[in-house]
């Protein structure tokens, strides 16, 4: 599938050798690159520019990549797809990355071609969101272009990253539920994602929705999967 326009990308990496390799590998007309070697610079660039994909190292001077990701999601409300890259390969590290809002997690060392494939996939997914019209069910509306959830009583919430993708799949499936496997396949595609990662994402999304809309919008169908509840349904 060809890409219609250049992909604007921010690379956040403090290791000079890897940063040079990344900048050289993506140095062609298909990509427009910005670079930051620390977390504060990255946050400033993200707050003042529009990017299609962010590649974010974890071990940065000052703020860690996890903290940068958390801040751009919660403070700047930036929904740009983020790929975390790190040598941290434990499950709890991956859970932390996804919990703070990362869309993908790549463990070092990795093949640059694999990173490129993931960048392109996230870009296509983001572009697809922007072309999708608003989705509505009784009492709830979701705009995949802006990641905004709103209810008929006027409350609204802007989602980001993986939370937006999970919510879109759940609202598309309403009134049916999505099994664990169906949700994994629709959100992560052919990539293998363990059940703890899925549950962590859904738990974080459920809490965010309940804090905003004051009712349990996502119901767990024990042993089966998840479904959305409208404001007038019992949990």
Automatic annotation (TrEMBL):
<keyword id="KW-0804">Transcription</keyword>
<dbReference type="Pfam" id="PF00072">
    <property type="entry name" value="Response_reg"/>
</dbReference>
<keyword id="KW-0805">Transcription regulation</keyword>
<keyword id="KW-0238">DNA-binding</keyword>
<dbReference type="InterPro" id="IPR011006">
    <property type="entry name" value="CheY-like_superfamily"/>
</dbReference>
<feature type="modified residue" description="4-aspartylphosphate">
    <location>
        <position position="57"/>
    </location>
</feature>
<dbReference type="InterPro" id="IPR039420">
    <property type="entry name" value="WalR-like"/>
</dbReference>
<feature type="DNA-binding region" description="OmpR/PhoB-type">
    <location>
        <begin position="132"/>
        <end position="230"/>
    </location>
</feature>
<keyword id="KW-0597">Phosphoprotein</keyword>
<dbReference type="InterPro" id="IPR001867">
    <property type="entry name" value="OmpR/PhoB-type_DNA-bd"/>
</dbReference>
<dbReference type="InterPro" id="IPR001789">
    <property type="entry name" value="Sig_transdc_resp-reg_receiver"/>
</dbReference>
<keyword id="KW-0902">Two-component regulatory system</keyword>
<feature type="domain" description="Response regulatory">
    <location>
        <begin position="8"/>
        <end position="123"/>
    </location>
</feature>
<feature type="domain" description="OmpR/PhoB-type">
    <location>
        <begin position="132"/>
        <end position="230"/>
    </location>
</feature>
<protein>
    <submittedName>
        <fullName>Response regulator transcription factor</fullName>
    </submittedName>
</protein>
<dbReference type="Pfam" id="PF00486">
    <property type="entry name" value="Trans_reg_C"/>
</dbReference>
<dbReference type="InterPro" id="IPR016032">
    <property type="entry name" value="Sig_transdc_resp-reg_C-effctor"/>
</dbReference>
<dbReference type="InterPro" id="IPR036388">
    <property type="entry name" value="WH-like_DNA-bd_sf"/>
</dbReference>
């Amino acid at each position: 599938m060809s890409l219609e326009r250049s992909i604007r990308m921010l690379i956040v990496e403090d290791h000079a050798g890897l940063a040079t390799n990344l900048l050289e590998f993506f140095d062609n007309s298909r990509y427009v690159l910005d670079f930051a070697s620390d977390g504060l610079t990255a946050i400033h660039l993200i707050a003042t520019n529009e990017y299609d994909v962010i590649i974010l190292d974890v071990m940065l001077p000052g703020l860690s990549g996890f903290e940068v990701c958390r801040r751009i999601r919660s403070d700047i409300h930036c929904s740009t797809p983020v790929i975390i890259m790190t040598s941290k390969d434990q499950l709890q590290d991956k859970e932390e990355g996804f919990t703070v809002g990362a869309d993908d997690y790549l463990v070092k060392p990795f093949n640059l071609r694999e990173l490129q494939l993931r960048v392109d996939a996230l870009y296509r997914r983001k572009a697809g969101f922007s072309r999708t019209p608003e989705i509505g069910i009784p009492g709830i509306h979701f705009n995949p272009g802006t990641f905004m959830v709103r209810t008929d009583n006027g409350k609204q919430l802007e989602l980001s990253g993986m939370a937006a993708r999970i919510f879109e799949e759940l609202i598309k499936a309403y009134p049916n539920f999505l099994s664990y496997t169906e949700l994994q396949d629709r959100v992560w595609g052919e990539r293998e994602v363990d059940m703890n990662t899925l549950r962590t994402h859904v738990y974080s999304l459920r809490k965010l929705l309940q804090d905003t809309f004051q009712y349990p919008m996502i119901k767990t169908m024990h042993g089966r999967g998840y479904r959305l509840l409208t404001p007038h349904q019992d949990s």
